[in-house]
Amino acid sequence: MLLKGKKILSLISDDFEDLELWYPILRLREEGAIVHITGEEANKQYVGKYGVPAVSDICFQDVDPSEYDALLVPGGWAPDKLRRFAEVITIVKHFDEYKKPIGQICHAGWVLISANILHGVNVTSTPGIKDDMTNAGAIWHDEAVVVDGHIVSSRRPPDLPDYLREYISVLAKQ
């Protein structure tokens, strides 16, 4: 198990992209990682775009990011909600400041944009937010996965195997 003992935090809000939340969580748990889901409220059921539920373990305000080794930001429409919480922005900035792996896929780039951490960073995302990413100073690539230091980005659900292979690799090297 490559990630035994690693603790990973995943952000959640309603309308997350079901596969972009669950596929990474399950793969990381298969590798021995502990994954906690954080939302606006603890122990609340959030529902994905396609109806798959997930229950948060902890609320944003109770998260101590120093207790975690990495961050996951799933896509869907949830990132547009997530980026409005000051606590979420603080969490993202912590992971960036300490160069802990940050995984973002699809529309999740919106959260990193709002945290103002993408200037000069090579990334990808759903092409629908390419302009948002480049206007935030990112260098956008139309590739399945892009790794730039501690930031691992991907476009959409069909890219999940490539995304998780690289995210796990970055995390395992820490």
Write a structural description.
The radius of gyration is 14 Å and the shape is globular. The longest helix is centred in the first third of the chain and has 13 residues, at about 20-30. About 30% of the residues lie in helices and about 20% in strands. The protein has a single domain (about 5-170), classed as Rossmann fold, CATH 3.40.50.880. With about 170 residues, it is of the alpha/beta class. The strands form 3 sheets. Strands 5-2-1-6-7-11-10 form a 7-stranded mixed sheet, sandwiched between helices. It has a two-stranded antiparallel ribbon with strand order 3-4.
% residues in beta strands: 15-25%
* Proportion in helices: 25-40%
The CATH top-level class label:
Alpha Beta
Distance N terminus to C terminus?
A: 14 Å
CATH architecture: 3-Layer(aba) Sandwich
Radius of gyration: 14 Å
Count helical runs: 6
Number of domains: 1
Main sheet strand line-up: 5-2-1-6-7-11-10
Helix-and-strand structural type: alpha/beta
Reconstruct the topology from this structure:
Blueprint: E1 7-11, H1 18-30, E2 34-39, E3 45-47, E4 53-55, E5 58-59, E6 70-73, H2 78-82, H3 86-97, E7 102-105, H4 109-114, E8 122-123, H5 130-135, E9 139-140, E10 145-148, E11 151-154, H6 160-172
Parallel strand pairs: 1-2, 1-6, 2-5, 6-7, 7-11, 8-9
Antiparallel strand pairs: 3-4, 10-11
Keywords: Glutamine amidotransferase, Transferase
GO molecular function: transferase activity
Domain DJ-1/PfpI: 6-168
Quick description:
Helices cover 32% and strands 22% of the residues. The protein has six helices and eleven strands.
